[in-house]
Amino acid sequence: MKQVYKILLAGLTWATIITGCSKEKDVQEEGTQDPPVLAGTYNGNFSRTGMATTDITIAFTGNNFSGSSTAAYPVICNGTFTINTNQVSFTNACNETGAIVLNGTYNYTLLRGATFRIWRTNNNITDEYTITLAR
Length: 135
Description:
Elements (H helix, E strand, L loop, with lengths): L1 H19 L19 E9 L5 E8 L2 E6 L8 E6 L3 E6 L11 E9 L2 E8 L2 E9 L2
Antiparallel strand pairs: 1-2, 1-8, 2-3, 3-4, 4-5, 5-6, 6-7, 7-8
């Protein structure tokens, strides 16, 4: 009987050690997630406070982007971008004076699957791009 208790105690000790040790956390702490990868062609729309919504396409390759709009705005052209855990910054090669250009720093949210909401607000005017990875 003494042998059974020793085996049982050894098993419980082993189970406690195994479940208590972990090389990685199963869930990352908020604010420590890696930014998503923007890669591929995305279709969606652009809206600005007080203006009509327009259809857009943006293609991301590496840290480069290019795109188009079905209207005169926004001007997307091409350039580079960087993304971190809560913002994406665009540097556009277009130099359109007075036009709405995809340029500068925006907030983003991953809505579902591969749909992104990219926006910024300045003086009560919000520019918003909602794009979904084309399948």
